[in-house]
Amino acid sequence: MEIIALLLIICVCGALLLGYPVAFTLAGTSILFAGMGIVLGFFEVNLLRTIPIRIFGIMNNQTLLAVPLFVFMGVVLEKSGIAAQMLTDMAKAFRNIKGGLSISIIIVGALLAASTGIVGATVVTMGLMSLPALIQEGYNKKFSSGLVAATGTLGQIIPPSIALVLLGDVMSNAYQRAQNDLGIFAVETVSVGDLFVGAIVPGLLICLFFLIYSIYFNRNLPANSDIDTNLTLQPILRSLVPPMLLIFLVLGSIIAGIATPTEAAAIGAMGAIGIALFLKKLSMNLIKEVSQRTALITTMIFAILIGASIFSLIFRGVGGDALVDVIFELVPGGKYSALLFVMLMIFLLGFILDFIEICYVFIPLLAPPLLMMGFDPVWLAVLLAINLQTSFLTPPFGFSLFYLRGVADASIKTQYIYQGVVPFILMQIAVLLLVILFPVLVL
Predict the structure, then answer these.
(1) How many Å apart are CA 387 and CA 378, to the nearest integer?
(2) Which of 51, 142, 166, 339 could cysteine-pair with 420, CB 3.0–4.6 Å?
């Protein structure tokens, strides 16, 4: 049975590498294995009858309702041009500092991460706006490519993050399952709000590492004072204060216990509309574009969730739990050896799979054994979030690399992008190790 479960994973990964759609690959391959198992007598047909219940559970999940609302909030800020204006004004503010443009890109990237949470939108916006400016001012092409690609991924770890919403749902289920397996039936829960609070310090640490590296790398660059000599404080405040106020409203309402993440996402969506209205960017055409983009992104995410749910059900039906137990039994050492093994596996999976696939296919299999060993669920979830952030940067299938390649001009070679992200990946791994050594950073 363990061999059949392993074959299922291999077939799914093989189909994904061939370029088949993720959602249909997960569901279709799993159902084919289930059909074969029914014929050969190693799969219980009654398990298939629970698929509609699982799908209904996903669509009826109140936590996941935050996903389309946060997507809507981010797309409004992207399509209205607010993000681009923030970048322009911050570049003016740091014009007299060595490497000032790179500093402004990291700061704006962090603000965009906290206000949009959409990696693709951030990378494309930063790539179109800042990459040409970096090259024009004499920044190294490899550094520039890596900076833009890595800064765009900050939306994975800085709350409110769609990745943390999805991971919170997965970890909540995994924690309840682990407690049930331990015979604890008065189960405690893990909320998305807990993850948001726990991810704040690690997210800021990653930004700090990026800033230190950028300042050191560009220490010999001359300051550029030719951007705009007529700089005033008012336009900078006008572009920066509204997004920062939006972040404060969303995160503040969650941390203070006033609103759930789903309710805070609704506040964020309405707040983004209010900002667009305040800055005179709101129009019926904008609402139409934002609604269509939100529907497209949300449909993609939920299709993958449904496919992953079907895969998870059938994987367990063909002996997947036994396979995971065998793997953990083969890992030498104690619980920290098992933790490092899982982190390494997630990191390597990030080379070939998207964070949503890893989140909904592999973490439900790997997290319960770790939680049964006594690890804190919020701490473990933040570790996984930092690890998953690297999946956007690791070639050959790092989505941030694809997004940047799509908007960069011909002078930026693909090898420059791949080489440029390496230091930023190492910095993320360094923060991951710091959080492992000092859990207080999360807890």
Answers:
(1) 14
(2) 142
Reply yes or no on whether the pLDDT at 322 is more than 80: no
Q: Name residue, tokens 């949300």.
A: 298
- The two structure tokens encoding residue 77: 């800020």
Domain count, the chain: 1
Q: What is the largest CA-CA distance in the chain?
A: 77
For residues 8 and 30, is the Cβ–Cβ distance under 8 A? yes
333 DSSP 8-state letter: S
CB–CB of 144/134 below 8 Å?
yes
Which of 93, 132, 75 has its CA nearest to residue 298? 75
Instruction: Give the mean pLDDT of 116-122.
Output: 64
Structural domain harbouring 397: 2-441
Question: In 306-411, which ranges are E strands?
Answer: none
CA distance 172 to 190: 5
Neighbours of 226 (CB within 10 A): 8
First and final C-alpha spacing in the chain: 39
Span 251-293, pLDDT tens digits = 888 888 888 888 888 888 898 898 888 878 888 888 998 899 8
b/e per residue, 304-329, with b = 16+ CB within 10 A? bbbbbbbbbbbbbbbbbbebbeebbe
Q: Is the pTM of this model over 0.90?
A: no
